[in-house]
From TrEMBL:
Ranges of residues in domain Peptidase M16 N-terminal: 14-154
Protein name: Pyrroloquinoline quinone biosynthesis protein PqqF
Source organism of the structure: Pseudomonas qingdaonensis
Keyword Nucleotide-binding: no
UniProt cross-references to Gene3D superfamilies, sorted A to Z: Metalloenzyme, LuxS/M16 peptidase-like
Catalytic EC class: hydrolase
Enzyme Commission number: 3.4.24.-
InterPro entries for this protein: Metalloenz_LuxS/M16 (IPR011249), Pept_M16_N (IPR011765), Peptidase_M16 (IPR050626), Peptidase_M16_C (IPR007863), PQQ_synth_PqqF (IPR011844), PqqF-like_C_4 (IPR054734), PqqF_C_3 (IPR054733)
Length: 778
């Protein structure tokens, strides 16, 4: 990779990154202004302005503005307002990059939202506020922030709602315009471009489209009042310890130092803090983050989720003792290891992550002299001599692994080596899925989850994804990343799956974070598709013999993707160790008792998911239908009706089942009303349907392997494998997409809700036609 920095004549700072390995491109803009820079009279003004940018502008109406444009290209786009910064970012295939940059810069330089649009968007902000107010984790964080001075903006309200954003007020409109003019000018912004293009090409794009911003000079953002951190003004929750660390005079480089500290605090290997807590069977989960960091000021939060028997005061004492140990440790070797970790992260990062890091001035690198000085500033308060026998972690072997020579080994039954992802991408994926029918499977899965957790954490540090998931009677292991590291991780994972350590049998199950209604429904959806298995779990003791019996009767299938032929023998030898009986698994049939399923949710907003399965052989038709329906669905339900901020429609492949997934979370409409709105949108779309060759071509282009994310290619091939396809081909899919007719689309839309599965947040009766049949698929 190569990088360049420049400043345009109008004052815009630009960073460019040429990364030949990338298949997609990304752009990010950081504006050095956020919620704390907005006038005190209008809480939420900065967040509100962030939303307004996406509502179209004089050059690009909303249907062709950045969000719709990126969605049509199969990319991703978002924005985020923080205390002192606001970020806008997107990722698209290379062919769409210039159009995305133009739209991004144009929308920030020349926003245009009339009062009617503003009023509608204010209701979306209000819906977000309601969801935030009902989220326990968000409320917990808000309560913790009351530990700072009442004069500090951290203790205030900045998200905005219906009452803090008086759109008709002329003074509010003047403040909105003034905020944009003051901060959304070139001197206050950084544009970052990342892609496989040469630096000269990226520079030309930045100069052409970055020139649209008004000239300006950097503005020094006013310093915040002192934190004056006091003892937490909220009671410590049972099973949780929250520790706040406040700093006022940190040297430059604090953000890098905080990331370094997070890396080693989160290390679970022997000798560290988390290992000590786990050895005592106290810890269930840990997180460390900066609740606020600006200039020389920072507020850090360490959150310990503990079991009922854990002494919270001793946990905090150990935390502070470890920080004292680190303060006096020789950090030279640790920073060298951190450099290896950062290099691994940089090589694994996608275009979007690289662009966002560049725009925020946080590239993947070891601590420089400034960062080391800032780290000493973070550790300076911990002056006592460490009492525990802490030690620094050793070098991670997964950061430097290679393939060993293995004799020729035949491919095990049940395994396919997919050619979908060329080995030149240097990204390997291994999928393994078991069908387990044991009544003890849920309890045994939790044992194995605990056994794998340290390996998952080690793999993550080496930029390897190791995922262990379950869906009713289906267990799945997925490992992706650098091919040599993937093989090493899977080898260790299989050993743990066969023979967990003694302590893993007594590990606690842990507690899962609270989810908003729509996310909870999404989590439940796969179980309803493959068929749920109701009934209480057996209460007998479980041990190694029960696991051995489960593996003996389990059937499994697997797929590898992205490996060279030279390493196939090593892969085959590895996969010969998979426990269970290899071979094609039996078909999965959804056996939900009816099309309308009530999922118990906490009191609050309503949510509805509708999964509309695609008939066999109609993947291309349903993909095009999802592609074309996405805009009208979002426009009607999110923009015009303001049903809520969580509104989406997209094609999904779940456990080998392809379907169109519609989802809405709403503070005001119940599932029956949401469903009626969904049906009306689809009916209107069907009535106005015309042929659109441009849409077909745009969608087909998204399934060109050189333009697809490596993980997306592998997942598509795996889902096709689960669906029963022996030789799925992206070329074939593209040809099928280009051949879809308007008549096929119309037929699919008219029958979209036939055989659909509905997951709702509240029990409903009499909503569906009497002819509606239960969901099932083979």
């Amino acid at each position: 990779m190569s990088c360049a920095h420049l400043t345009l004549p109008n004052g815009l700072h630009v960073t460019l990154r040429h990364a030949p390995r990338l298949k997609r491109c990304a752009a990010a803009v950081r504006v050095r202004a956020g919620s704390h820079d907005a006038p005190n009279a209008w809480p939420g003004l900065a967040h509100f302005l962030e939303h307004l940018f996406f509502l179209g502008n004089p050059r690009f109406a909303i249907d062709d503005a950045l969000m719709r444009y990126v969605q049509r290209q199969g990319g991703q786009v978002n924005a985020s307002t923080r205390e002192r910064t606001t970020d806008f970012f997107f990722e698209v295939p290379a062919a769409a990059f210039e159009g995305g940059i133009e739209r991004l810069c144009e929308m920030l330089a020349n926003p245009q939202a009339d009062r009617a649009q503003q009023l509608r968007e204010r209701e979306v902000i209000h819906a977000e506020f309601i969801a935030w107010a009902r989220n326990p984790e968000a409320q917990r964080q808000h309560a913790l922030l009351q530990s700072v001075s009442a004069q500090h903006p951290l203790s205030g309200f900045h998200a905005g709602n219906r009452y803090s954003l008086p759109v008709p007020d002329a003074a509010f409109q003047s403040a909105l315009q003034a905020f944009h003019q003051r901060y959304y000018q070139a001197g206050q912004m950084t544009l970052s471009l990342v892609g496989p293009q040469p630096l000269a090409t990226l520079e030309a794009l930045a100069m052409q489209y970055g020139a649209v911003f008004a000239p300006g000079q950097p503005i020094e953002q006013g310093p915040a009042p002192a934190l004056q951190l006091r003892a937490a003004r909220v009671e410590q929750l049972p099973g949780q310890r929250d520790v706040l660390l406040g700093y006022e005079r940190l040297p430059a480089g604090a953000a890098q130092a905080i990331a370094f500290l997070d890396t080693w605090l989160s290390d679970t290997r022997p000798g560290g803090l988390l290992a000590a807590l786990r050895e005592r069977h106290w810890l269930e989960d840990f997180s460390f983050s900066a609740l606020h960091q600006f200039a020389a000021q920072a507020l850090l939060h360490a959150r310990f989720k503990l079991n009922d028997a854990a002494p919270a005061d001793q946990v905090e004492d150990l935390f502070r003792d470890w920080l004292s140990f680190l303060r006096d440790a020789d950090l030279t070797a640790l920073n060298s290891e951190y450099a290896r970790i950062q290099q691994s992260r940089a090589l694994a990062a996608g275009a979007l992550e690289l662009a966002r890091r560049d725009s925020s001035g946080q590239p993947f690198s070891a601590l420089d002299a400034q960062g080391l000085a800032a780290l000493q500033g973070l550790l300076e308060p911990f002056t006592e001599q460490a009492r525990q026998p802490w030690r620094l972690p050793p070098a991670e072997p997964l950061l430097a692994v290679g393939f060993s020579d293995v004799p020729a080994t035949p491919t095990p039954a049940g395994v396919i080596h997919s050619p979908a992802l060329p080995a030149v991408r240097q990204y390997g994926v291994i999928y393994l899925r078991w069908q387990v029918r044991s009544a003890l499977r849920a309890r045994l899965w939790r044992v194995l989850e605990g056994a794998l957790r340290p390996l998952v954490e080690r793999a993550t540090r080496a930029s390897v994804e190791l995922q262990w998931s379950e869906c009713e009677h289906l267990w799945q292991l997925r490992c992706a990343g650098s091919p040599p590291a993937v093989v090493a991780v899977v080898e260790q994972a299989l050993a743990l799956l066969r023979l967990p350590a003694a302590q893993d049998w007594s590990a606690g199950s842990g507690t899962e974070p609270a989810l908003i209604p729509i996310r909870l429904l999404l989590k439940q959806l796969p179980g309803y598709i493959v068929g749920r298995a109701p009934g209480p779990l057996p209460t007998c003791l479980i041990a190694q013999p029960e696991l051995d019996a489960l593996w003996q009767n389990a059937r499994w299938q697997g797929m590898t993707c992205g490996f060279t032929e030279a390493v196939q023998p090593a892969l085959n030898a590895l996969l010969a160790q998979v426990p269970g009986q290899p071979g094609m698994a039996e078909p999965i049939t959804g056996d939900a008792t009816g099309p309308w399923q009530h999922v118990p949710l906490p009191e609050g907003e309503h949510a509805l998911l509708v999964f509309c399965p695609a008939p066999p052989g109609s993947e291309a038709v349903y993909r095009l239908l999802a592609h074309r329906l996405q805009g009208p669905f979002y426009q009607r339900l999110r923009v015009e009706l303001q049903l809520g901020y969580a509104v989406f429609s997209a094609l999904r492949q779940v456990q080998g089942h392809t379907g169109l997934l519609l989802g809405v979370q709403s503070p005001k409409a119940d599932p029956a009303q949401i469903l009626e709105h969904m049906r009306c949108v689809v009916a209107g779309f069907t009535h106005d349907l015309t042929d659109d060759a441009e849409a077909r071509q745009a969608l087909a282009a998204q399934f060109h392997e050189p333009d697809m994310g490596n993980a997306d290619v592998a997942e598509w091939a795996w889902q096709a494998r689960l669906a029963g396809s022996d030789a799925p081909s992206l070329d074939t899919l593209r040809q099928q997409l280009l051949a879809v007719t308007a008549q096929q689309l119309e037929h699919a839309a008219r029958h979209l809700f036939d055989n659909a599965l509905y997951l709702a947040s509240a029990a409903q009766g009499g909503l569906l036609p009497a002819t509606q049949q239960p969901f099932s698929q083979v």
